Amino acid sequence: MEQARGQSRGSDPKPCSNAELQRLEKEIEKTRQDLKRLQEKLSNENFVSRAPTEVVDKERRRAADLGNALANLTAQRDKVSNLQNE
């Protein structure tokens, strides 16, 4: 009886992990695209020179936040992937 419960628990995480991996991959891709667009905007000399300083600073902070979010999402994905491979 105890062994049967252990086996069912052992098989449950993989479907959840697959769904979680897919969710994380989608979120990573969206964050990458957003960050790329923002970096392109910030590398546009016309935008940086003409936009108010507050706007440029806000976009730079947003780019930094997206970079941090991307790092966190990637770490989460790696963690879930490692759990799935156990």
Summary keywords:
single chain; 86 residues; rod-shaped; disordered N terminus
Describe the structure.
By secondary structure, this protein is mostly helical. It has one domain (2-84). It contains four helices and no strands. The longest helix is centred in the last third of the chain and has 32 residues, at 53-84. The chain is rod-shaped and about 55 Å long. The two termini are 23 Å apart. Residues 1-9 have low confidence and may be disordered.
Helix tally? 4
Report the helical percentage.
over 70%
Compute the separation of the termini in Å: 23 Å
Instruction: State the major sheet.
Output: none
Number of domain units: 1
Output mean pLDDT.
Answer: 88
Class by SSE composition:
mainly alpha
Strand content: under 5%
Radius of gyration: 20 Å
Strand runs, count: 0
- Shape annotation: rod-shaped
* Parts with pLDDT < 50 across at least 5 consecutive residues: 1-9
